[in-house]
Amino acid sequence: LPCIVGESSAIQDVMEFVGAVAKSPDTPILLMGETGTGKELIAQAIHYRSPHFKGPFMTVNCAAIPKDLAESELFGYEKGAFSGARASGKKGLIEEAANGTLFLDEVGDLSFEAQAKLLRFLEAKEFYRVGSTRKFHVQTRIVSATNKDLDTLMEGDAFRKDLYFRLGAIRVHVPSLNERRDDILPLAKHFLLVFSKKFGKIFTGLSQEAERALMTHTFAGHVRELRNLIER
How many of the other CB atoms lie within 10 Å of CB of 89? Predict the structure, then answer.
């Protein structure tokens, strides 16, 4: 199981809810929260608490996929489907994650065409590879995440409303570090041990001055900022 460090009621409530919703093998889950709050870790926690925990867990950052390649990355393609395609064709990430979990990070950046195809998959568990007339059926749970305001994207017709409601069959708000301040020192000490081992150091704790500095700081980058701070 992924290491979720947290003593605050905010993160404990999230983990209790995650434990319940993970029991379904394929219900879509949408994680909402700011950048650096640990959404991928929560997605892993969902996967490893699900009936398909032995299956693959795969991650894709939708913002990093060129718009014109999103469909082929997610759904794969057949031989000769487009210029530059592999001669043997290629499985898409949804196929690669069959009987497991595909984590779509920054799902708000998906192209409109890929959104339509993803909606079809979520509704019918079927899809076509790019350039194929053969229908594929797989069971893959989709966990998606966003730090964007999808309501604003929908108003501007940049994100499909029907996809939003399907992706968010279950919605989980991942609290910011500033909403779970009781976790600042436990997380700092956890990262201190991790990086002490990594750098061959023998740090055993934090001074009271350091603890006060951490507890009075506002973390704009949340857990990621704290992690990077301790490493630096």
Answer: 17
